[in-house]
Design a protein that fits this description.
four-stranded antiparallel sheet, mainly beta, 293 residues
Length: 293
């Protein structure tokens, strides 16, 4: 068979097998402009042991726009959902999706040849607004039907007219398909999300709305416990919120959220920034009870 038609070998059936695979030759990280007048970019770092440029930036791609403010980014494909292991025989782990949290613009970088990485596609904010009603894209995960993108803003100039949420992109064309949620229940803020695919649930967390973070934390809102303090559980494929757990209004900014690595286990963790009664951070653990909640 022609080498070009063989499945991408960078997918692995388990985290343990991935750890046993050859080490990466290059790493990718984003570069932030020092203010809104500066350009953000993508840096390629040499990880080849023995290389004269080991640990150095060996290639970079600066974007033509300013004021994007890159944060999180992710792949177009992964071992758990969009890979030869899940029926996508010839999909490559090739593209990095990098959203601008301030501009709502999304860059797609082609990094198949790391030293020739370049911009493949740009999704302008107007398309994001028109097709989803969301703004301020933040977290990227490849999921069952495509690329899932969480947002921190809804519609309107300041992103507060409607709640933020998740939208889905096609993993090959990068066209925006539309919103994820069919029934959001109590969810009215957003931050991170993750899932347990075999158990068919997703869990999401919440931070605050754009006016509460775009110019720094609003002390009055923090002390009044107006930031996010709940986590939300979803029927992943029905796209329905099935349960919301309030961690307590004093536990402000429920952010990074992770189910257990072992998909047979029904527990996970959420990191909370600050308890307004004592200024301590916290890690909460959730688990599924015998009654299914």
């Amino acid at each position: 068979m022609n080498r070009a038609f063989k499945p991408d070998p960078t997918f692995h059936a388990s985290p343990q097998l991935a750890m046993q695979a050859p080490v990466e030759n290059f790493a990718f990280t984003i570069m932030l402009g020092k203010d809104a007048s500066q350009h953000d970019g993508l840096a390629v770092i040499d990880l080849r042991q023995g290389s004269d440029t080991y640990g150095q930036i060996v290639h970079s791609v600066m974007v033509p726009t300013t004021g994007d403010e890159f944060h999180h980014f992710g792949w177009n494909a992964c071992s758990s959902s969009l890979s030869p292991l899940s029926g996508h025989a010839f999909l490559e782990r090739r593209y990095l999706i990098v959203p601008g949290i301030r501009s709502s613009r999304i860059y797609i970088f082609d990094v198949k040849e790391p030293l020739k990485a370049h911009i493949h596609k740009v999704i302008e904010p107007e398309e994001v607004f028109a097709k989803t009603g969301y703004s301020r894209p933040h977290t990227i995960h490849c999921g069952p039907e495509g690329i899932y993108v969480s947002t921190l803003g809804g519609s309107g100039v300041d992103g507060t007219d409607t709640p933020p949420g998740i939208f889905i992109m096609d993993c090959e064309t990068f066209d925006i398909i539309g919103r994820y949620e069919m029934d959001r229940g109590q969810q009215d803020k957003h931050y991170d999300f993750w899932w347990n695919l075999p158990q068919n649930y997703m869990v999401s967390s919440e931070w605050g709305l754009p006016p509460q973070f775009e110019n720094g934390v609003v002390p009055e809102d923090l002390l009044a416990n107006k930031y996010g303090h709940s986590i939300h559980f979803w029927d992943l494929r029905a796209r329905k919120n099935v349960q919301t757990i309030d961690l307590g209004e004093n536990h402000q900014m429920a952010l990074e959220i992770r189910p257990a690595h072992d998909p047979s286990k029904s527990y996970g963790f959420c990191g909370v920034v600050v308890d307004t009664t004592n200024l301590q951070g916290a890690i909460f653990t959730w688990w599924r009870g015998d009654d299914g909640t």
